[in-house]
Write a structure and sequence with these properties.
The structure holds two protein chains of two kinds. Helices cover about 80% and strands about 0% of the residues of chain A. By secondary structure, chain A is mainly alpha-helical. Chain A has one domain: Fumarate reductase/succinate dehydrogenase, transmembrane subunit (3 helical TM bundles of succinate and fumarate reductases), CATH 1.20.1300. In chain A, α2 runs antiparallel to α3 (about 60-70), α2 crosses α4 and α4 (about 75-100) packs antiparallel against α5 (about 110-134). Chain B is mainly alpha-helical. The N and C termini of chain B lie far apart (about 45 Å). In chain B, α1 crosses α3 (about 55-85) and α3 packs antiparallel against α4. Chain B contains four helices and no strands. The chains are: A mainly alpha, B mainly alpha.
Chain lengths: ~130, ~110
């Protein structure tokens, strides 16, 4: 007697297409997965990239000037912007997770508000540093 | 007394706590660097070199780098444990990640105490 609509395929596994197109994460879920993605990006390639620039800029006067003009290239600036976003998001989301570990803002409405704050603050910080960069 | 339990709950507590403490150290360092950068005019080679010649800056940056290495290792390990199921591949990737992080640390020391 079951209708066609009720006959969904069961059990349902978390396939990649399902993750990408069917499951809709709430904002705290996005904050969480982007915390992971940004963390991975910061380990590689951004940590290596920053060390490379720090090395060159401290090595000699010409190295410093080279690094400065290198940072002036549009594509490099774009890469720097992605780094800035990854750092700001990882930091802001990390502070939120530390507070959640301390049971601060653990209720659903507060947790939703703080996830909005994380996204907003990290994007504003990215815009600020991006503005300074350009 | 040393308790060696390799399965069950609680054995990850030390790593969990270490990741949070190192996060705190890096957040404080970030605030210091942010304050230094915001209150100064864009650096010249002289001021940039002088900044990293100071003892406190070298030690603070080293503490940051050690915290980063420890924090990143736990994070990368967790990601690999979550997504890479074949044991051999996961072990290989974990060794690669450790080598990468160790070389970052060595590079940082080399840059700071040249």
């Amino acid at each position: 007697m079951s209708s066609a609509a009720a006959k969904k395929a069961r059990p349902k596994y978390l396939s990649l297409p399902a993750l990408l197109f069917e499951i809709r994460l709430p904002l705290p879920g996005w904050v969480s997965i982007f915390h992971r993605v940004s963390g991975a990006l910061l380990v590689f390639p951004f940590a290596a990239w920053l060390l490379y620039m720090l090395d060159a800029s401290l090595a000699s006067e010409s190295g410093f000037e080279k690094t400065r003009s290198y940072l002036g290239l549009p594509l490099v600036k774009l890469g720097a912007l992605v780094f800035i976003w990854a750092y700001c998001h990882h930091l802001c989301a990390g502070i939120r997770f530390l507070l959640l570990d301390l049971n601060r803002g653990i209720e659903l409405p507060a947790a939703r508000r703080s996830s909005v704050a994380v996204v907003a603050v990290s994007l504003l910080l990215t815009a600020y540093f991006g503005y300074k960069l350009w | 007394m040393v308790k060696r339990v390799v399965v069950g709950a609680h054995y990850g507590m030390g790593d969990w706590l270490a990741q949070r403490m190192t996060a705190l150290i890096m957040a404080i360092y970030t605030l210091i660097v942010f304050a230094v950068v915001v209150t100064n005019t864009p650096p010249t080679y002289g001021t940039w070199k002088a900044l990293f010649a100071q003892g406190w800056m070298r030690v603070a940056t080293l503490l940051f780098a050690v915290s980063l290495a420890w924090h990143a290792w736990i994070g990368v390990r967790d990601i690999l444990m979550d997504y890479v199921k074949p044991d051999g591949l996961r072990l290989a990737l974990q060794v690669l990640a450790l080598l990468l992080i160790a070389s970052y640390l060595g590079w940082t020391v080399q840059i700071l105490w040249r």
